[in-house]
Amino acid sequence: MRIGVLTGGGDCPGLNAAIRAIVRRATADDVTVFGIRNGFRGLVENDIEELTRASVIGILPRGGTILGTSRFNPLKDEASLQALKENFASHRLDALVVVGGEGSLSAARDLWRHHEIRLVGIPKTIDNDINGTDFTFGFDTAVTIVTDAVDRLHTTAESHHRVMVVEVMGRHTGWIAAYGGIAGGADVILVPEHPFRISRVCDLLLSRQRLGRTFSIVVVAEDAHPHADEVFLTKEQYETIYRHDRLGGVGEALAAEIERCTNIQTRITKLGYVQRGGSPTPFDRILATRFGIKAYEMIRAGEFGRMAALRGNRIVSASLDEAVGELKRLDDEIYRLAEVFFG
Ligand code: F6P
Known about the structure:
Blueprint: E1 2-7, H1 15-28, E2 32-36, H2 40-44, E3 48-51, H3 78-90, E4 95-100, H4 102-115, E5 119-123, H5 139-160, E6 163-168, H6 175-184, E7 188-190, H7 198-210, E8 216-221, H8 235-241, H9 250-262, E9 266-270, H10 282-300, E10 306-311, E11 314-319, H11 320-324, H12 332-340
Parallel strand pairs: 1-2, 1-4, 4-5, 5-10, 6-8, 6-9, 7-8
Antiparallel strand pairs: 2-3, 10-11
Helix pairs in contact: 1-10, 5-6, 6-12, 7-9
The chain binds 6-O-phosphono-beta-D-fructofuranose (F6P).
């Protein structure tokens, strides 16, 4: 048997752990594994090489992906799709493992459903926005990094009596902001699922000040929007911050507005790609390893068009249709819990 593995979309901690698990498990059965470079691009451009047990030595704790990644969509034109099919056939691949986020898993779903490419998925992303699985790997590491940053920012906030605004990633969902903010003890957390009123944010910060808390931490997700009733951003700011292909900058505008309306010195820290970097946490290493093993077992069982998923503490297979139909929004229960600690 011969299987291919690719990692697509944004990198995240745990990708190497998943690759290692697939290679270790498959080679133990004398199955040959091919690593495809740079996501689907490698399958279209025939950038493929065999992965042996030696190829995966020492990669478990390493961030990023030894295979490289890209956001290349193989379904974007007929020529790419044809090349992908030819390379799949010329390597005599029996199946493919696609380790990806929403974009790569959507492409995987379509390749299986419309072109009968035999594949299984593994959900990864720091954003934790994939349906069908309780968690994706990468998320726990990102939350750990945000928590550590918020802990560190507390000391300067407290010493200088400042408001610290921390902008975090998460694309269109507030999972990282909510989990990182709750774990770090943020005083306000703003997420895309709940448009915020700037007047309420300022009231919360001023009431903290009146209670003698002369500093505050505000965690804001990169796609958090002001409520339509109280838009304080200019049209130009809106267009720069909420770009379809790249989000970022709401923290800076928010910090300026908070300083204006509260008169409290306010600073902004944008955590950016730090959240995607470095070594995965033990939770992510274990989840990625379990997903890798499950993906291999699914191939052996012929369960194509599905992905490995976490439900409770069990690893199961979930349909790719369910996974990519719509984004998994922040659980309302989590946001209600975060709100208890606002102000
Ligand atoms: O999906 C992961 C993520 O880091 C998002 O949180 C962020 O919005 C996006 O990727 C950034 O993408 P890029 O790496 O293309 O700049």
